[in-house]
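Pipeline run #58 for the internal structure catalog. This entry was flagged by the ingest filter as a single-chain record with no existing model, so it goes straight to prediction. Upstream metadata was stripped on purpose; only the residue string is passed forward. Reviewer on rotation: M.T. Logging verbosity set to normal.
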Amino acid sequence: MIDLEKNIIKKVLATFIILLFSFALLAQKNKSDDEVIIEANMLFNRKEYPKAFPLYSHLLSLHSKDPFYSYRFGVCLLYTDRRNPEAPIKYMKPFINDLEGEDALMVYYHLGVANHQAYRFNEAIDCFAEFKEKVSPKHEYFYYADKYEKMCRNGILLLQNVSDLWVQKKYEASLLNFFKSYDLSKFGGRIGPKPEFLKTKIDKKRNEFDLVFVSNSSDEIYYSSYGAKKSNQRDIYKVKKMSDGTYSKPIILSKNINTEYDENYPYLLPDGKTLYFCSKGHNSMGGYDIFRSNFDEKTQDWSKPVNLDFAINTPFDDILFITDPMQKYAWFSSYRNSNDGNIMVYMVRIDKRIDDFDKMNMELIAAKNIDYNDAKYLKTIEFLQNKSNLDVNSVVEEEEETVEIIAESDNKKYNIPENPTQKQLEDITYMHVNSVDSTMNDFRKKRDAVNLLFELNKTKSEEFDKRGNELKAKAANEANMQNKKNLQEQANVYLSQAVILSNEAEMAKKMLNKYSAAANEEEKNLNKIKDDAGFVLKLINSRKIDTSVVLLKKMIDDVNAMKQNIVETDYKISGNAEFASIVNEKIKANNHKIDSIEKNIFDLNAQKKTLEDKYSSTVDENQKREINLKIEEINKNLAKENTAKEELKRDIAYQKTELAEFNADRNDNSKLSVNVNKIYNNEIDNIPTITEFGIEQQDVSLNENKTDNNLGA
């Protein structure tokens, strides 16, 4: 019902436009039909279709069944108003056999273009093939018909694997100002007109409106130009800002990027290795398509460009694709669904989701000998046309997306269902928060056990010291030499044990300080996790499922990291041998990383030597500049690798020191931990008492001796 209403609205709108132009023409021009016909034909022959559009609109309103006016109005509509790709076909196709002269030939070409823009790729191929059969290869449109055929075949292949997009913003803007709609405040750069110093004489002569992206973090500018030599197509170049503030001479990118067709709108990510650009070559499905390529350090060249596919790319020009540094969001523009002089601007999330494409018969787009009036085929065409409009379908604010997007295929790793319900996500969130809370409670309990052991040892030490000094004083006043000796021995046992307990209390205090400091730090981490969990639950309750899943995965990673850190900290403080094993594994892993870095350094030095030799044997100054820039880039990479190597060496030195300190205190801490674990496990009665030291028994023996002596007296 909704689609029917849309079609009715489109028809009413088209009729209104025709009437509007007709009335405007009659009211303002006040010309005779003959004058209108002459002017319309003149503009049409000049290919000034937008200007001819209202004139043929007027003529068609007067001669609604005339094949000539219907065809020419359809052509003007095709190149003027891109909002309804089916409309031009309806004005041209019924009269394909009723035209004369050049129109009888060109109708196949223009109908091919119309079918191409409507995703009727096989129908378009039929039209272009018919056109090429009817005209000479020297015909000015033969080349373009051949190119369109290739784009249609590319489109058929690209549409066999399609995905939908989250669309957050959508504007229709003027061609002269559309780039101002891009909000790049968080993207690390700005867009603006191409500076004069980057324009060649040919660029200035053509006087086309050019844009470049200038990064805040890079000293290179990538841009499009016709070049210094006579050229009919655009290529992508780069210049580098030198230390004195000037720029190097332009260097053209390799043939992996540049083709015999136009390339434009380059954008290099801050990583310096990922390039997005637009091309009418490669496997474009129509006009400019958006491509991505990565720079290969080994080959020192760009990889084969990858088409970003539907629904970013369409049969229309799709241009100026700019992502944030993390490649989570992107701005781009497209001529689809726009009127003459305007362009559509979109802000989308790059993480894609499969919507209901699997319900469509995409294989029908590629099928040959199909009935073009088949209901399933027409439904698939309509579906693609509607999806290409990219209506806003996401209310998620950019500020909420502060973490790296994790692919849905990772759900299994996190034990999250592929299509989770609100209740499932809430349960998973609470489960992980409770889990880390439980781990933290165990750590607190361990800290409290150490504190109790410290208090017990301190108290016992004080009691033993007091008892020992009492016995020592008593021995000093004892007249009986045997009793004096026994009392002195008893005092020495108490006093020596008091020293032992005092030392153990001091060790327990040090252990307590370590547990307390670690617990305080982990409390901060736990509070952050709980805050994150609260935000996740808020998103879940707001039914922002996709965003909540992303943030939930990040929270789970933080939970697991915190739990692992608590375990390692406990091992370290308590003298558990597992800590030594963990540190040794880290040292081993870092040594492997150093080996890998040293191999990279060796390879980079080999590349540098090859380039230096090539530089020495090269005469061409432009090639020398390009080689020199590559050598500078290698030097930068060498510096990065050496810095990383030194950082790893420092890490290993710290880990070895940490291991030495652990081993030095390990025996004392592990012995102390025996009693800590007894307290932790509520086995406090099993901690050694005074009796277990044999002290109380000696007191009893002493008393018995004293009794015997008294009786003997």
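catalog note: Confidence is low (pLDDT under 50) at residues 1-9, 18-30, 395-409, 689-713.
catalog note: The two ends are 122 Å apart (CA to CA).
status: ready for reviewer M.T.
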